[in-house]
Amino acid sequence: MSRQPLHYIPTTGFRERSKAVVEDDFLQKSFRGAMDFLMAKRAAQFPDGNEFESLRRLGEQIRRNSLDKLPALLTQLEANLVRNGIQVHWAETPEEANRIILAICEKHGAKRMVKGKSMVSEEIEFNHAAEAAGVEAIETDMGEYILQLAGEKPSHIIMPAIHKTKAQIARLFEEKIPGVAYTEDVDALIQIGRRVLRQKFLEADIGLSGVNFAVAETGTLCLVENEGNGRLSTTVPKVHVAITGIEKVIEKLEHVPPLLSLLTRSATGQNITTYFNIISRPRQPGEKDGPEEVHLVLLDNGRTQPFADEELRQTLQCIRCGACMNHCPVYTHIGGHAYGTTYPGPIGEIISPHLLGLEATAALPSASSLCGACGDVCPVNIPIPDLLVRLRTEVYSEPCPDARLKGQGAGYSPWMTAIWRAWAAIYGHPALYRVYSWLASRLNWLTPARQAGWTSVRTPLTPAPRRLRDLLKEKR
Fold first, then answer.
1. Which residues pair with 277 in a beta bridge?
2. Which CATH architecture group holds 14-304?
3. In the chain, what are the domain boundaries?
4. C-alpha–C-alpha distance, residues 306 and 28, integer Å
5. Which end of the chain is more exposed for a tag (fewer CB within 10 A), N or C?
6. Which helix (H) or strand (E) holds 74?
7. Residue 43: which of 326, 318, 259 has the closest Cα?
């Protein structure tokens, strides 16, 4: 595949990108159809509301238990992985994670890498770092491969190319893959991608994957997938590197089945995915397949920030199913690229401020109607609306030197704070409210025609010429 510059979306400009998507009738129709399909598939998997509530309470308990014991479980995980022959690396930042992986590539003289689906590798922008280091990193998930050809980032954490049509993919394959003719036949497009990628698996020096669950009790890495690319990426090359966030650890192997059931049914509407990979060690003497060397990179990248706060810690319960995105009225209208972050939608709005800081993501916690749909469908019961309100408060609060959140107070305005304090004083004292309402009704001709964001889509708010109390007084 020919190399080309990768175009990463800046975190600023959220409003402008959102407006552009909302005004695109074709994208609106495409998003609506895709989201309706995904919501219907999920609903069919949970016909019994009581069963869903019972299962998600169990999932919540498992994830909370893991997070409450996180430091101890990470220590146990490392010990058992090392005992099993897997090398463990710790990375505090994306730059450090990239250095670790590229150092492994350099040690083995690896110039070609095949990648199974990994949102954490997107988070650290590994492809960009690999390209700069002269390592060809090929995405092997079909959606990710399509986006890599297009030089784009994923717009959904489960279905990364959901914003692409078959006609766009057909044109892309014709332009980027030598000898490929234009076709909109979906099966033919899949076969074209498979043919290209199978050759890449054979040529690869090293494979990289994500991790869905890391089991501390046994030192086991669990990988969920549908295409078989994850299994090929982790078994064909001689070296396998897995990367995951520190929050993905769970205590026991028996905790995997309930979480797996919640993940697959919530994400793609399947009882079970096609492949469930359990990796506990490198290839042993006498075994016919598997890598000779396995590494795990455990990434922090801001995760210890919500972990230190009892309320915000709930953010780390996420199992990356994407259900909150599929049901969010904002995401279903603007898509993932508008957010400018690796994790879009409701989950991105509560996790990205910790990964990138509130300065870069100040607009995201407010990109929600707080309808509660995200919280209702979350398979591990994360109170997303409550966390959004908390982050909004942190964004617009007066900056505090001792604040735990990076960028706290990024949206603070002394003028707006004074206005809201005045509003609270007026509405908190009946006498002040009576004076204010009398003045507002008599001086309503002074009401400005432009009222910030309100009048961008609505008529101005103008006080009535007579108050309700005045009208009632006249009727007595």
1. 223
2. 3-Layer(aba) Sandwich (3.40)
3. 14-304, 414-475
4. 34
5. C
6. helix 70-84
7. 326
